[in-house]
Amino acid sequence: MNKDISFTKSSSFWKQTKRCKLVSPTLLQDDGGISDNAAMRENRQTKRSCASSVEKSKSLKEEGIFLAENNNLNEAIMRWSEAIAITPNDERLFEMQSQVFMLMEKDFQAAQQAEKATQLKKNWWIGWQTLGRAQMNLGHIQLAVKNFSRALHLNPLDNSLRKADLADAVKRWNSLTKEALR
């Protein structure tokens, strides 16, 4: 299996894993509650903890990219799974896992991960494209056509999506329907 692997390192979509509970000193009551200073210390500590979690997830994501690019696919999946445990709303982690599962010829898992990516970010054309590719591998051609069309709708200037993915899926769908009519 000699396939080129390329993952993008975009940091603009990082999301915090969990909502960090920050206490506002202005909302504190004077009747035996927490002092303003204690609340401020708690806020700073909570912010640092959340920031370190996001940084840990980012580090795991980058390790996974490195491992995948060096054909350590199982290790890459494990790193991204660890990152997902920290930042479960990062659609890119699921999409990258989907790509690697396809390389490993685990198309059902690839479709599951791509589906999660599209659920997290419905307007992300890359997620829909990856889902379509996984569905093509599973033989779900009609669904693949639908999802490549969604991806193209979200990114109409991508000629490779139009000329490669969507065109191949439509061609396969047409040949299947012609065979069914015979």
TrEMBL record:
- Could you tell me the keywords of this UniProt record? TPR repeat
**What InterPro entries does the entry give?**
TPR-containing, TPR-like_helical_dom_sf, TPR_rpt
Where do the record's region annotations for Disordered lie? 33-54
Would the keyword Signal turn up in this protein's UniProt record? no
- Which Gene3D superfamilies does the record match to this protein? Tetratricopeptide repeat domain (1.25.40.10)
Q: Record keywords: Amino-acid biosynthesis included?
A: no
Q: Where are the TPR repeats?
A: 57-90, 125-158
Quote the protein name from its UniProt record.
Tetratricopeptide repeat protein 33
Please give the organism.
Answer: Phallusia mammillata
Could you read off the lineage of the organism from its UniProt record? Eukaryota, Metazoa, Chordata, Tunicata, Ascidiacea
Q: Which gene encodes it?
A: Ttc33
